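Hey,
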Amino acid sequence: METVTVNITRASVLADMKVKSHSEVAHIQDDKQRYLAELGTEKEQEAHQCITDAASDVAAFIRPLLVFTSGTETATDAYDTTAAITYTLSVTARKAPGMADALAKTIHAYIVDAALSKFYGSVAQGDLAEIHRVRLASELADINNIIYRRSKPTYTA
């Protein structure tokens, strides 16, 4: 078995969320409504909670492959402020090549869309939340495809 580590930078996810939010709320004519809908600096704490929730969704999805330490596990529900979200997977040698990069990109996309969907839901922008929610099934399928597809066998003579 091989170990594949995927690091998702929270700041990068937040930056992508802000860029998307800025362009997505631009069509809202009312300045106050646009301000309330846009992900700005004053709403970062809520955005970080949305990121944490989305990262938990990913962890639940890929849980069968996650590497756990033996012994007692402990967890807390304290506000997550880690700079990076890390997933360490144990996979076969035929699955490992190229997996980390591909998974990092697809997991990043999933977290951005899932977090934005939750964020827009919390600021009463259901139409914008739906746009991101619809993408999640396809992104989960991409993650699943990367995880369970393996490279062609190589034969040595």
